[in-house]
Each structure stands twice: as C-alpha cells, then as structure tokens.
Design brief:
The structure is a homopentamer of 92-residue chains. In chain A, 9% of the residues lie in helices and 47% in strands. The first copy, chain A, has 92 residues and is mainly beta. Chain A is globular, with a radius of gyration of 13 Å. Chains A, B, C, D, E: Pfam families: EutN_CcmL.
C-alpha cells in the first residue's frame, strides 16, 4: 500500500458504465516523512476522505473490486483508510 | 488510475487475434497540474476519446477485460473516461 | 520480492472493513547493500516484525490474500519473513 | 501497453518447462517519439517479430496466457503486434 | 520478464508457512548490455541458479505459483531460466 494526500476531485461526465457513481480523487503519494514522492494517482474513495486528508491507498484490481463490493469494478486504486498517526509523520 | 493526454493513434496491421478491432491510442501520462509525467503508454479507447482529450486510464488486465466485455482480452490499459474537471488542472 | 527495513507503525481509525484488525507497518525498501532504495511502502505484518527489522516483502494481491488467509483481503503488500542473513548485507 | 524496439534474441537452454519452446526477445521500450525510454525487457514473441521491428507489448500475466493459449504459461510480457504507424513516430 | 545477475542468497528463519523450503536469491536486474539497471529484487530459484549466473526472471504472482506448482505460493518473482546467450550481452 501507499500513503498519500488528497489534492482534489476529478469530474468526468463521459465515462464507461464501470465508473458511474464512483467518487474519483487525485492523490499525491507521500514518503514516510510526508514529502511528495513518485507519481500522483487517481483513486476511488471508499473511506469518506476529504481534500487534505492523509490516506491509505491500495493499488490492485482484485482488492479494489473487493472493497467496492463490485465484482465488475474496473478500478486499480482505492482509498481504504484515513491515517491518524504514522511514526515518521508524527501526530497529525 | 492515471490522468493522461491522448497524443495520437497507433496502427498495427500485424497483430494477434486478441487485438483485432481495438482502437489503440498513445497517451502521455500527466501529473495533477497537467504536466507530462512518467512513461507514455498505449491504451485501448473505451470512451470515444480523441486526440488532445484529457482522459482517465485504468492499468490492470482484469479491469480492461471487464470494461471491454471481452473475457479473452489481452490488454493491460484502457481509457475509461474523459476528464472535464480536475481541481489542480482547473476548468478545461 | 523486496528487502525492506521497518520504520514504524501506521494508525488509521477510519478504514474499510477489509482493513480492520490488520497491523500496518511503514517499510523503507533497501538495495542489496542495505541502502534505502526506491519508494517506501505500507505492508501488513504477517511475520511478527518489529521496528528496525530487515524484512522480506511480497507485493501482490493474490499472495497477500493467501498469506493472510483472508480471501476478502484488500491488501497489496505483506511482510512474510524476517531476514537473518543476506550475502551483500553480511551477518546482521 | 508499451511500444518497443526488438534488439535481439535470448537463448536459455536451462529453463523451467513453462518456458520450453518460447521465442524470447530483448525489447527496448520507446516513448512516443521513438526514443529509448525506461527499462528494457524480455517478451515472448507472438506476432512473428524480427530484430529492428517496432512492436506492441502487453505486460500482464493473464493477457500473456490468453495470447499464448497456454493456461499454464508463466510469462509476464508478450509481443502482440508490429506497429506500422504511430502519429508521433510518423510513417515508418 | 527481466534479465538479472544472481548476487547471493537470503536466509530468513522467521517466515510464513508460504515461504518454507523456498530458495531465495538476491538478483540485480540488468539492461541489454549487462549493466546494473533499476531495482535489485528477491526471487525464488526454480532453475538451479548459482551466484554469478545471468538469469531470466518472471515477476507475476500467477506465473510464480504455476512454475513452483504451489497454488498457495505467496511469491511475486521467480527465476525460470539461466541465460546462455543474449545478442547484446554477446557470448557468455
């Protein structure tokens, strides 16, 4: 999994059925000190995250379908938690 | 998922049956500010995208087969939406 | 698989059911000489690892579900061993 | 998928049964302008490619097994087409 | 697949059942000219490789389980062959 910070929302009116009704968010991946690190990505929010939240991201199709409870889900990254505390990142 | 900009089309007359009839497009992946970022890739278009469109890309075989409704699909990246709005990229 | 050093724990009270009860750890991946290398990641501990341990990490959903014995697991990285000896890293 | 240029062949007499009889080729991945880009890789040829050809590569186990029609195939990259034309790469 | 050079062995006495009895090796991935390239990795040896051998590596869970004939295998990289000849690397 990865740690990331939610930067914003994505709106895509034209999309395949597999993506209707999904809340898409832009996430900047972070290293253990909370610094921007590697590629930004788009993830489906399954943990009621908001802009600015530090989140836990799983990047795997099977996991995404499981968390979304959508066997037909065509998603490769999901937000599965909001991080309260990380040794390196210290208390939020 | 990733954000990308469609650069062009790919024509490959010699190809395996699994790829017949698929619309292949070259996509430059972007960061949240719309800057070229990381590797360009080839994706199958499933959202009627055109050259210059900012698109949503899923990079996972299971998802690709699901979106294309082709259980025998041998594809690892599909375009699943056209992005209208992204906080960082502002209004298109 | 990858070699990594456990940096700390992750606490996320808000998370999906798929992640309840899992021990999440921050791991810095290492090269064969034990130097920090590439991205840090979050992995589920399945080998009773502690902070500072040099560990073996598998980054694959199917393997994670198998090791955790949780077919509904939505995890893409697990700690599966604690490394005693690595030629390059010499005796611990 | 990726674009690549075939550099040469690979000969490995000692190999597991899963790889017997497969034509292994070294491929340099390219960006949209045909410049060498990212890691070289080894792919199984399923499109009768030759040294110097610009090819289409799928990097996913499920797709590889489908294209090779070998459910027991242990391959993570296959050549599925020979590229005639790519906007950026212009006419070959 | 990738080309790599075997650097050494890994010993991990504390590990999950899924990894008991497996021969773990540290492999430095190489480019087509035999130069060290990208991340080192740990792979399960299925081709009787030794330290210094130039090997063929598959990085995919499904393939690993197939080659190891262990449906419960929790491994994401296996050595499947020893490379005798590679155009670029010339005669060994």
């Amino acid at each position: 999994m990865k740690i990331g910070k939610v930067l914003g929302n994505v709106v895509a009116t034209v999309k395949t059925d597999s993506h209707r009704g999904l809340k898409l968010m832009v996430v900047q991946t972070l290293d253990e000190r909370g610094e921007p690190h590697a590629d930004p990505l788009i993830a489906v929010d399954c943990a009621h995250a908001g802009i600015g939240d530090i989140v836990l991201i799983v990047e795997e199709g099977g996991s995404a379908r499981e968390v979304m409870q959508r066997p037909d889900g065509a998603v490769d990254a999901v937000i599965v938690g909001i991080i309260d505390y990380l040794n390196e990142l210290k208390e939020r």
